[in-house]
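It would be a great kindness if you could assist me with a short task in structural biology. The matter concerns a single protein, recorded as an amino acid sequence and a row of C-alpha cells. Could you please explain, in whatever detail you think fit, how the C-alpha cells follow from the sequence? Thank you for your consideration; the sequence and its C-alpha cells are set out here:
___
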Amino acid sequence: MHRLLLWMARNAWLRERIPHLPLARRAIRRFMPGEDPEAALAQAEAFRDEHIGSLFTRLGENIGRIEEADATAEHYLGLLDQIAARGIPGELSVKLTQLGLDIDAAAALRHMERLAERAAQDGGIVWIDMEGSAYTERTVTMYEQLRTQHTNVGICLQAYLRRSAADVARLMPLDPAIRLVKGAYDEPSVLAYRTRSAVSTNYAALAIELLAAVAAGHPVRLGLGTHDVALIEQLAAHAAALGLARTAFEVQMLYGVRMAEQRRLAAEGYRVRDLIAYGTAWYPWYMRRLAERPANVLFALRQIVG
C-alpha cells in the first residue's frame, strides 16, 4: 500500500484527473481546511486561541516558468503581511522548487532572502521544506548560504535519509534551526532506511544529538515534525534528563492528524505548531500523506462514504 500510494503521487495521468473528482475533493478535507489562504488563516486564528502556533505552506512544487516562481514569492510576502496584521503566531514552510530552483537557482536564493527579510520584521522564521533526494544537497547548500546572513531561516531534514547524520554535523556550526521529519518520498535503500523501526531509531538519534547541543548552550532550534507521540514523549524525557524544559523544542504536526494529541500536548506545556497546507496543487502531497500511515487511508474512505 505504501509503495502504491507513492507511485500514485508521482503519476502524471492521475495527478491531472483525480483532483477534479468530487469524492477526492471531499477526502482532502482530512488534511486541509480549504484550498485558499483565507481558510488557512482562519484556522490559524482558531489555533492561536488554543495556544497552538501555525506553519503555512502553499502546495505546489517543480514549477515550470520563472514567472510562477516570482508569483509564489509575492504570494508568500502577502501572506506574511496577513499573518502580522492578524496577530497570528505563524511561520512559512516553502519548497525551493516553488521559488524556481529548477530554473534559476540564483532567483530562488533571492526570493528566499526577500522572504527572510520580511519575516524578520516581525521576528518570524522561514522554513525550507525538504523535497526528494535529488534536491537534498542543493537544499542544504542554499541553506548554508542563507544562514550566514539570515539567522531566521530553518531547514527540514529527513531522518530516513542515511546522509542526515552527516548533514546535522555539517550544519551544527551554524547553530541551525532544524525541523526533523521522518520522510515521505519513495527513496531507494542505498539512500534511505526502509523500515519503520530503522527510521524511528535514526530519528531519535538525530533528535538526541540536537537536544544535546541545546543543553550545551547552542542556540539550536529543534522542531519535532512527527506524529509519533510515544517518540515525542521519549525525547521529552531525554530532554528533561539533560535539564531542558519542554519548551526547549517544538512539536510540529500536520493539520488534521492527531488533533486531540496536539491539543493535549499544548495543554501540558509543550510548544506545538500545526502545519496548515492550502492551494489547488494538493494531489501529490495528499497521496504522500496517505502513504505515511494506513490509518489515513481508512479515514479518507470514511470521509468519502460518510
About this structure: DSSP finds 13 helices and eight strands in the chain. The beta strands are 53-58, 90-95, 126-129, 153-158, 177-181, 221-225, 250-254, 271-278. The first strand starts at residue 53 and ends at 58. The radius of gyration is 18 Å.
